[in-house]
Structure of NADPH-dependent 1-acyldihydroxyacetone phosphate reductase:
Amino acid sequence: MAPKTVLITGCSTGGIGHALVLEFQRRGHTVFATARSPSKMADLKELPNVHLMALDVVSQVSVDAAVKQVEVKSGGKLDVLVNNAGVLFVMPALDVDIEEARAVFETNYWGVLRVVQAFAPLVIAAKGSILNVGSGAGDLPLPFQSMYNASKAAQNMLSEVLRLELRPLGVKVITLMAGNVATNIAANAPPVEIPQSSVYDPVRSEIGKEMKYSDQPAASFAKQVVDDVLGGSQGKVYRGGNSFIMKWLPSVLPEWAMDYLMLENGRGLKKMPKQ
C-alpha cells in the first residue's frame, strides 16, 4: 500500500489519538499529530514521518492555520482525517451549568464539524476517508453523563449524515462507535463538584468515581481501527471493550432490563433515598 497522509486531532499522550498516531506511523504513513498543546505529545517528535502541530478544534483560526500547513506539506491532499479530540463530562442533569455544557458540545460536536468543513477540500482531492471517533455512549442513557452522551449522540448522527453526503464526492466516512478503551480520558475530565444544594448530595461521593469496565488496551484498539480505515470500511464500526454490548443490547433488551443495567452502573443512583 502506498504511504498515506493522515491528520489526527487530540493526540495527547495516553489517549486514543496518540495510539492511532503510533499505529499509522508504524505502518509507514505520514501523520500530522495535533493537540491544543503540542508539549502534551512531545514523545512523538522524534518519530520519522510524524509532524507535530498545534490545533484547537474550538478555534476557527487554529483550524484554518492547520489546514494551510497540511496543504503545503501534503501537496494539497489528505488521505485520512481522524476526528478524535473530545472531552468527558460527568454531572447530574439537574446540576449542569449550561455554559459548561455548551463547552462540551463545542468540542465534541461543533469541533468535529468545524474540522471536517475546513479539511474537506483536501480529503475530497484525495478521495480519502474521514474517521469520526464517536462513542457507544451516545446510545446508552448512563446516569450523570447526559451532556457527554448527548454530545456523542449528536456527533454519531452528524457522522452518519456526512457518510451519505460525501459518498458522491468519493469520500468514505467511518463512525467509530468506541467502547471502553484504556486511556486517561477520565483522569483528564474536570472534577465532579455538585452543588451543596443538589438533590443528589446523598450519593455525592459516588458520582465522581471512575466507572470500572473491561477496557481494551489502546494499542490493540488502534490496530483494529487502522485496519478498518485502510481496509475501506464505512459507516458504524464497533471497537473497544464492551462494544458487543453497546451494539446489540439496546435493540434486543426490553426497557426494564436496560434500565436495570444502567442503574447498576449508575454511580450510586440506586443508593438514593426514596422520596
